């Protein structure tokens, strides 16, 4: 399937680009892990193939924001069952609630998506099942004025990838490769699965 490490690194980048752009991509919703060993599924919003940075959206009040501020080590797992390819990455995360990256991500979001940041915040207690949204926004798309308070809760999670572990599952024998950032380039190697 892949004969060179350069082909694999290019394939990883292409898969992550597609995962961010195509909500039907099997890698669109990776498992994101913070250093406090908490894992959750999140939506990949963008991948920068030049800097190898992932962008995801989050609530600035979420417990993961405090966990990342305390220890920025992070990991993510992407899996494409049809292609039988797993991509694991490690790196450092940072939360940006203000500034051009957060502002651009907010501006590119739909009002329906922005309404998620109107509630009490992730982990808030409830007497019963809840979406966390104020009742007037259940199933309703708010207008721009109604969303003004939501902007202060919106943030982006940026993960700068330092290591990539690629695994191809094959009945003839699995194949695995690893990549580690080294300055502006990569150290790369084949490894046993």
From TrEMBL:
Q: Where is the Pyridoxamine 5'-phosphate oxidase Alr4036 family FMN-binding domain?
A: 38-95
- Read off the SUPFAM superfamilies from this record: FMN-binding split barrel
Entry-linked InterPro entries? Pyridox_Oxase_Alr4036_FMN-bd (IPR024624), Split_barrel_FMN-bd (IPR012349)
Q: What domain of life is recorded for the organism?
A: Bacteria
For the region Disordered, what residue ranges are annotated?
120-141
Q: Name one Pfam family in it.
A: Pyridox_oxase_2
What is the protein name stated in its UniProt record? Answer: Pyridoxamine 5'-phosphate oxidase family protein
Taxonomic lineage of the native organism: Bacteria, Pseudomonadati, Pseudomonadota, Alphaproteobacteria, Sphingomonadales
């Amino acid at each position: 399937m892949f004969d060179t490490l350069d082909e694999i690194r290019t394939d990883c980048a292409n898969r992550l680009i597609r995962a961010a752009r195509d909500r039907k991509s099997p890698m669109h919703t990776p498992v994101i892990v913070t250093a406090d060993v908490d894992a959750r599924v999140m939506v990949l919003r963008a991948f920068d193939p030049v800097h190898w940075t992932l962008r995801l959206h989050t609530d600035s009040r979420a417990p993961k924001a405090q966990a990342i501020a305390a220890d920025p080590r992070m990991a993510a797992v992407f899996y494409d069952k049809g292609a039988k390819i797993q991509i694991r990455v490690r790196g450092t995360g940072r939360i940006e609630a203000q500034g051009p990256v957060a502002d651009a991500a907010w501006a590119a979001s739909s009002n329906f998506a922005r309404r998620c940041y109107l509630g009490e915040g992730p982990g808030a207690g409830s007497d019963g099942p809840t979406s966390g949204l104020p009742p007037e926004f259940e199933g309703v798309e708010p207008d721009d004025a109604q969303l003004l308070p939501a902007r202060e809760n919106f943030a982006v999670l940026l993960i700068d990838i330092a290591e990539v572990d690629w695994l191809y599952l094959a009945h003839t024998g699995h194949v695995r490769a690893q990549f580690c950032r080294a300055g502006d380039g990569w150290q790369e190697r084949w490894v046993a699965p």
